[in-house]
């Protein structure tokens, strides 16, 4: 069963739209395998968008993904190709937000346009694996942080009531 990655970008999270966008994926029959709330560093965003590093909009992609928290979703569909389902839900990428079709996430939750659209979806199952590795590497780095005997954790299973932050082992 193929899985895919969807990222609800920082501007959508900041605008309070992430739960509505997440619901659209679920309503389409996608299952959330894992959900991670994180803020990518500039370097992590560059790694995430590495396949686009030669394109003129690369800097905008990096900025759009690293300036505030985002929500990373690992998704699967029980009967369909999850990559195709997410790409259809998101709507095709375009620099002009007025070109996004209504009924798609990008069309219904319009952002500033270009790289500042509301969502990212993997282009292939192979790309989803690579992208999720970047997300997990971010978590591994955060798990290593130690401060005055407290462990800093961003893993929900270690935090009370689904919150994230500092916990004492």
Give the ordered list of helices and strands: EHHEHHEHHEHEEE
- Spans of at least 5 consecutive residues whose pLDDT stays below 50 are 146-151
**Could you report the average pLDDT, rounded to the nearest whole number?**
85
Strand fraction: 15-25%
Shape, per Cα inertia axes: globular
Separation, N- and C-terminal Cα atoms = 36 Å
Task: Write down how many β-strands occur, each being a DSSP E stretch of 2 or more residues.
Answer: 7
Output the number of helix runs.
7
Q: How would you write the strand order of the largest sheet?
A: 2-3-1-4
Helix percent reads 25-40%
Radius of gyration: 16 Å
Question: Care to describe what's here?
Answer:
This protein is of the alpha+beta class and 169 residues long. It has seven helices and seven strands, in the order βααβααβααβαβββ. It has helices at residues 10-14, 18-27, 42-48, 58-66, 82-90, 105-108, 125-143, and strands at 3-8, 31-38, 70-76, 119-121, 146-147, 150-153, 165-167. It has a four-stranded antiparallel beta sheet with strand order 2-3-1-4, sandwiched between helices. It has a three-stranded antiparallel beta sheet with strand order 5-6-7. α3 (42-48) crosses α4 (58-66). The longest helix has 19 residues, at 125-143. It is globular and about 35 Å long. The model is unreliable at 146-151 (pLDDT under 50).
């Amino acid at each position: 069963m193929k899985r895919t990655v969807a990222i609800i970008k920082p501007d959508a999270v900041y605008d309070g739209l992430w739960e509505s966008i997440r619901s659209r994926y679920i309503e389409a029959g996608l299952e959330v395998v894992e959900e991670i709330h994180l803020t990518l560093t500039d370097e992590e965003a560059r790694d995430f968008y590495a396949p686009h590093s030669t394109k003129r909009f690369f800097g905008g992609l990096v900025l759009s993904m690293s300036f505030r928290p985002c929500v990373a979703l690992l998704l699967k569909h029980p009967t369909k190709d999850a990559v195709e389902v997410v790409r259809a839900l998101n709507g095709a990428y375009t620099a002009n937000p007025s070109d996004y079709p209504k009924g798609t996430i990008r069309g219904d939750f319009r952002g500033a346009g270009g790289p500042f659209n509301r969502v990212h979806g993997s282009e292939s199952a192979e790309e989803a694996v690579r992208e999720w590795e970047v997300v997990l590497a971010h978590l591994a780095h955060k798990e290593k942080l130690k401060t005055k005997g407290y462990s800093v954790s961003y893993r929900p299973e270690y935090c009370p009531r689904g919150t994230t932050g500092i916990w004492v082992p």
